[in-house]
Amino acid sequence: MKGGPPWWSLAACAGSDPDLFYPPHGAASPEAMRICRACPVRTECLIHCLLHGETYGIWGGTTEAERRKICRAVTKCP
Question: Which amino acids does the record list as binding [4Fe-4S] cluster (predicted)?
Fold first, then answer.
């Protein structure tokens, strides 16, 4: 992945089909979740997603609905 944070090159999803991580709106992707479970930078990915307001897709092993719950639990989330 070019142009991203340094941790992107360590991501388990590097080289995977991006479509796996963007299932139909609100759905989970078992394959993406499997990849995320084994990822050494899963936390960094989730933090990046929350800080940059990524609302779609699987990020840091979380679905859109799971991230909405996280955002409701904190006060400063985009």
Answer: 13, 36, 39, 45
In whole angstroms, what is the distance from residue 1 CA to residue 65 CA? 26
For 23-59, letters b (16+ CB in 10 Å) and e give beeeeebeebeebbeebebbebbbebbbeeebeebbb
Domain boundaries, the chain: 17-73
Angle at 26 between CA 21 and CA 30, to 5 degrees: 45
Residue 1 pLDDT more than 60? no
Judge whether 13 is annotated as a binding position: yes
pLDDT tens per residue across span 50-67: 999 898 999 999 998 899
In a 3-state reduction of DSSP, which class is residue 1? coil
Which residue type sits at 49? C
Ligand-binding annotation for 36, yes or no, is yes
